[in-house]
Each structure stands twice: as structure tokens, then as C-alpha cells.
């Protein structure tokens, strides 16, 4: 599988691989890529299979498939060990990757994500939504989702962020987004596996996140020994875009304080 990606910064910089959520693309991480590159990091931001300009295959994409794609990309780029960050579905893919490919991740960033299983109604809603967007496309779905994606404060004060988020969601390829929803509905429970994570971990969440509220981040923080937790005030589900200064500061502080082995 060939993914579209940006590979920014010095080739010998500390590698950071950032994984976007649903239904977004790699432009979601632009503020973080610019911030980290300016500090000497090498930042790789891919479009996941079926998103952005990466091709789509099949009608169902499991999180293990996404994780394997990312490891293949890292191999292609010569990144044996790397910092791995993911938001929302990207965070779940990160949890899957750490589980399936131990030793590849030397530090972990989990933002606005949830380790547990969907309830039966939530699982069915993913399957129903996949059918809907396959038939209707992304516009109506995106417009319904937007008010929950970002906080009321962000919508009132950051029209640039709202426009960017809406554009990403509307432009997401319907087939790829639907395949991911079907696969995500069948994901495993990562909760107890979190206790086995032994790499430095930063957990971030927006204080106003409706999809994965602060309590979900606190659960992850409790399960991963030694992890750090940052709550970004005033942000919803996308604090990296809504409050990029605060998010970037948390990320930089984390990367500066941890000791790397490679």
C-alpha cells in the first residue's frame, strides 16, 4: 500500500509520525508539523488508506491494516523507531500499532481518543453511517458532525479553524471513510493493553470534547504508568487546531523532557 505523505524537517532529526483522525487528512497536523520542524524534528504526516489522496481498497479497513500501513511507511523512510502521535481514530490506530509492533515506538502521544469498545448502539451507528455516506456522500454528514468536532468557543472565534475542519470532512473520500467506519466498529478493546505500554506517553484532551471527554483521557492516563495528562481549556475534539499554541507547547515540553534511546 502506497500512502500519500509529507516528510518534513531534517532527515537526521528525531522522527515524529502523526496520525490523523476520521474523517480528516494529513493537513490536520500542519500546525504541529511546522512547530516541530522549526525545532529540528523530522515530521511525517501521512494520509491514511482511503483518506486524503491515499488510495482506498475494499469496503472495510481494520485498525490493524492502518497500523501495518504506517509501519511499512516507516520502513520505507528508514525510521526504525519513532515518536507516534494520533488523535481520535488516529489514537486508536496508535494503540493498535504499539500492540502489534512492540519496539517500534519510543514515545507516544494519544489525543482525544478512547481505548474501549463501542456500545452496541454506537457500533450499529458506525455501520449505518458507513452505508449512508456511501450513498449520499460526505457533505450532509460533515455539516452535522462539525458542531460536535470543535467547541462553541472555537466556532465563535476561529472561523479559519471551522472552515478547515469542514473542508477536510467534506472532501474525505466516501468509500475510504465508510471502510474505516466498518473496520472501527469491529476494533478490539485496548484498555487493559494500555497497562503494558512502557514508553513515555503524553495524553491530551480538549476540555469541551463531546466525543471523547476528559474522563476518557483520565482513564488512559491512569492505565499507562508514568504518563502525562494535559487538558486544553476551551477546545473540543481537535485541540491541535483549535488551540494550537497550547497543544504545541504541551508537545514540545513532552519531547524535551523525555530521554530517547536512538
Automatic annotation (TrEMBL):
Residues 15-243 form the AB hydrolase-1 domain. GO terms for molecular function: hydrolase activity. Keywords: Hydrolase. It comes from the Bacteria. SUPFAM superfamilies: alpha/beta-Hydrolases. PANTHER family: MONOACYLGLYCEROL LIPASE (PTHR43798). This is Alpha/beta fold hydrolase. It comes from Amycolatopsis mongoliensis. The lineage of its organism: Bacteria, Bacillati, Actinomycetota, Actinomycetes, Pseudonocardiales.
